[in-house]
Specification:
By secondary structure, the protein is α+β, with helices and mostly antiparallel strands. It has two domains: 114 residues, Nuclear Transport Factor 2, Chain: A (Roll); 178 residues, Glucose Permease (Domain IIA) (Distorted Sandwich). The strands form three sheets. Strands 6, 7, 9, 10, 11, 12, 14, 15, 16, 17 and 18 form an eleven-stranded antiparallel sheet that branches. The protein has a five-stranded antiparallel sheet with strand order 1-5-4-3-2. It starts with 5 loop residues before the first strand and ends with a strand.
């Protein structure tokens, strides 16, 4: 799901002037917003706006935005005040299908004069620029990076906070094909059913193993990662592997594992059009609040040449030393 962002800042920039206890006036405004949003009373939310806000966001645009938010994210299930940022109260808000920050500012008349909704991020999480744990590649043999690097052209993941340093990796033949014949079945793809291994010692903190594999060319946007394993390293780096073959994962949550240990088989589950491995590092277990970490492998062959402490990019053929 793409982030939904609305920014209408009509409040003056006053700095962080409040303490970190929710003020009663803000609580009332936030409670009214949530109740009317969940009841589809978008005109009542419009009535909460200041005159300046109503001019900037007329009723028709207010309805379009809020109905679009509802169709993508669903109802608000839980909301918690976090802190003030300038004149805004920031609320960590669990919708049915997304985790967002709902940010509300009110004027001296207790009218909403600023509102924006974006992805929730936890500023208290540790910032990690790159992995310090030495990693090997999580597979055997030579694979090809189809998405990887620091630009949008090389890696479409860069626009996603948690996945910004992710890799999508397949197996290709000498002709550059990732499948043997026509690519109509999962079994026709070279990567399907190949073993995936732990790139380092760690602890398994998440396992999902019940998602069906897609037919090639079809996607499952309901559970985007598909069958998933997340490993936590001793340096608090979270290694996420996505799109395993259904019922192939052989590790369990809480299990301590060692480098090279078998995790499961490469599959085509989740938001995946063909068998491949999606791999990235993040600074927290929950992808909804995590930030991506740049991934370097200790010693690998890249297009046949040995490289140390290297982060692969698109179209490079990679294998362990």
């Amino acid at each position: 799901m793409r982030n939904i962002i609305l920014t209408l800042t009509l409040a003056s920039v006053m700095g962080t002037i409040f303490g970190q206890t929710e003020k009663a006036t803000y609580k009332i405004a936030a409670d009214q917003f949530e109740a009317n949003y969940n009841s589809n009373h978008y005109d009542s939310i419009f009535a909460l706006f200041s005159p300046e806000m109503q001019k900037a966001l007329p009723l028709e645009k207010t309805i379009d935005f809020l109905s679009g938010l509802k169709s993508q994210a669903g109802q608000i299930k839980k909301r918690r005040f976090v802190k003030y940022k300038q004149t805004y109260a920031l609320y960590k808000t669990n919708f049915e299908r997304a985790l967002f920050s709902v940010n509300i500012s009110i004027d001296k008349d207790d009218k909403i004069n600023g509102l924006f909704i974006n992805a929730f991020t936890n500023d208290s999480l540790p910032g990690i620029e790159r992995n310090t744990t030495k990693l090997q590649l999580p597979f055997k043999g030579e694979w090809t990076v189809v998405w990887g690097g620091d630009t949008k052209e090389l890696n479409y993941h860069v626009e996603h906070r948690a996945q910004k340093n992710a890799f999508d990796i397949v197996i290709k033949d000498a002709k550059g094909n990732s499948f043997k014949t026509a690519g109509k079945t999962n079994e026709d793809y070279y990567a399907f059913g190949k073993e995936l291994i732990a790139p380092c010692d760690g602890e398994v903190v998440l396992v999902v193993d019940g998602v069906k594999d897609n037919m090639p060319g079809e996607l499952n946007p309901i559970y985007v990662p598909g069958n998933t394993v997340i490993l936590k390293t001793a340096n608090n780096e979270y290694l996420l592997f996505a799109h395993f073959k259904q019922h192939s994962i052989k590790v369990t949550e809480g299990q301590k594992i060692t480098a090279g240990q078998f995790l499961g088989l490469c599959g085509n589950s989740g938001n995946s059009s063909e068998a491949h491995l999606h791999f990235h590092i993040q600074n927290a277990e929950d992808m909804n609040i995590a930030t991506g970490v740049k991934c370097y492998f200790d010693k690998i062959k890249v297009n046949g040449k040995l490289k140390a402490d290297y982060s692969p990019v698109q179209n490079e053929k990679i294998e362990n030393e």
